[in-house]
Design goal:
Blueprint: E1 19-21, E2 24-28, E3 36-41, E4 44-49, H1 64-67, H2 72-77, E5 91-92, H3 108-120, H4 133-143, E6 155-158, H5 160-172, E7 178-183, H6 188-195, E8 199-206, E9 212-213, H7 215-220, E10 226-232, H8 244-257, E11 261-264, E12 289-294, E13 307-312, H9 319-330, H10 338-350, H11 353-375, E14 380-383, E15 390-395, H12 406-417, E16 419-420, E17 422-423, E18 432-436, H13 441-458
Parallel strand pairs: 5-16, 7-8, 7-10, 10-11, 11-12
Antiparallel strand pairs: 1-2, 2-3, 3-4, 6-13, 8-9, 12-13, 14-15, 15-18, 17-18
Helix pairs in contact: 3-10, 4-10, 5-6, 5-9, 11-13
């Protein structure tokens, strides 16, 4: 059908008068009982809706989905009064972007793979919504192992890991369902779920056990409406890495209740020496798992927006329906950047181990500086990190009576010392702050000196309740 406009004139008896199209007369038919007339052009008849009413004023409202979408980090940070001390340069330890300070560039081989993709002129058009087969094969080959084999059809390429998480939640959950999310945990899970009418239930992580899952609490939350268990390992914001034994215990809980797992493994293999981070899929014999990952963290290119969903369908539980659902959902947008897809094979196959080692070395050094320095600061209780890019520090607010909460504490630390750490109320876990470990080493040292000065200035031996706790 062409895009020409039609003018249908109605007489007082509800009968079409003469109508015109581009200055030519059209024949008219009587209007049926539904208020539909027909105009005929070039021998074809088309229904024309007769307007019964119109809005008398403009009233455009945001959708329920828009109104229900809230990013806790943004809602908290945007409300904070962040005015750095003008006498001290700002040190931002709040942003989970390893590129901010320029000290962690990606490897030359990664850049070369992108240059080759650009120079080939093969990747300037639309890719399939799920990604090029060759690119999906590259990801499948990179992550496949005997315990959890992968083929190209098991990979959906996405616009970053966040998009992968969105697809996984969307295909597994309906409005009214609930999902289990770690606390503290990445805020995006709640943002996505609530916007879709999905209830979020938080299971606790235990700081005294280096952020292991409270398995009993997790299991108590599962009911007949639980459609997904999200596990983040290594963890944002905690910097923890679950042991193989602990991961197996989590899988057993999911198995007992027949709940699939969404494994957020964007920090996969970003673990400190002495730790290992097996994929959940490699440990599961019966629980189906969707693993979400991407280039952002390990390859230090978050702005390239390349992620993936890896489908590990144990005992064909997902079957063709879930797979087809993922394909359909991927068609809502046109998927991952075609240029980065063209570079994927080179990125995955040619990045030298030395590049990964250098990143881990910096994280190890900064984690040791941060943990050792802040462990000796009165009123602070850092939790040792094992991976990812973060370290969590507990605040004993009983000894800081001048502050209402972690948001107030971190806000004042910016005002007085120009050091910004993210308050963990943003992760549903108050009275801690998160430190990002990707800054240059000397900046980490300076930040710890300033945090110490801030705490010593405000620390009181007597608690806010009047007890003399420290001798």
């Amino acid at each position: 059908m062409d895009n020409n406009s039609y003018l249908v004139k109605m007489n007082g008896n509800g009968v079409c008068g003469k109508s015109t199209l581009n200055g030519k007369s059209l024949s008219g038919n009587a209007v049926n009982g539904n208020g539909l007339g027909h105009v005929t052009t070039n021998g074809s008849s088309y229904p024309a809706k007769v307007a019964k009413s119109r809005r008398l004023k403009w009233e455009v409202k945001p959708s329920e989905m828009a109104n229900n979408t809230l990013n806790p980090i943004r809602s908290i940070v945007d409300e904070m009064k962040l005015t750095p001390n003008p006498d001290k340069p700002m040190i931002a330890l709040s942003i989970g972007d390893p590129t901010v300070f320029g000290n962690l560039p990606t490897d030359d081989s990664v850049l070369q793979a992108m240059k080759d993709a650009i120079d080939s002129h093969k990747y300037n058009g639309y890719a399939p919504s799920v990604g090029y087969v060759k690119s999906r094969e590259a990801v499948a080959n990179f992550y496949s192992c005997p315990e959890a084999p992968l083929e190209a059809e098991d990979v959906i390429l996405t616009s970053g890991c966040s998009h992968a998480i969105d697809l996984a939640i969307s295909v597994l959950c309906n409005p009214g369902d609930n999902i289990l999310v770690p606390r503290p945990g990445f805020s995006l899970y709640k943002t996505l779920a609530v916007s879709m009418g999905i209830k979020v239930k938080f299971y606790d992580l235990l700081p005294e056990k280096e952020w292991e899952v409270d398995l009993q609490h997790m299991e108590s939350l599962i009911d007949e409406s639980t459609s997904c268990l999200i596990v983040t390992n290594p963890s944002n914001p905690c910097g923890s890495v679950f042991s193989k034994d602990h991961l197996q215990k989590i899988i057993k809980v999911a198995s007992r209740h027949c709940v699939p797992i969404l494994a957020d493994e964007i920090y996969s293999d970003m673990v400190l020496p002495g730790c290992s981070s097996p994929s959940m899929a490699s440990l599961s014999s019966d629980v189906p798992i969707m693993s979400c990952g991407g280039l952002a963290k390990r390859w230090l290119v978050p702005g390239w927006r390349m992620g993936w969903v890896l489908i590990h369908d144990r005992d064909n539980v997902f079957g063709s329906a879930i797979r087809q659902g993922l394909v359909k959902l991927s068609q809502r947008i046109l998927g991952a950047c075609s240029l980065v897809q063209g570079a994927l094979e080179g990125i995955l196959n040619n990045t030298p181990q030395s590049f990964y080692n250098n990143t881990i070395s910096l994280l190890k050094t900064n984690s040791e500086i941060c943990f050792n320095e802040l462990s000796s600061v009165p009123g602070l209780n850092p939790v040792r990190t094992s991976g990812a890019m973060y370290l969590m520090v507990g605040i004993d607010l009983d000894h800081f009576p001048g502050f209402k909460n972690d948001v107030d504490f971190t806000e004042r630390m910016v005002t007085e010392q120009s050091v910004f750490c993210l308050p963990t109320s943003a992760f549903e876990f108050p009275n801690f702050f998160r430190v990002v470990l990707t800054v240059p080493e000397q900046m980490m040292v300076e930040a710890c000196v300033r945090i110490r000065q801030f705490c010593l200035c405000h620390y009181q031996h007597h608690s806010r309740h009047g007890n003399h706790l420290d001798q």
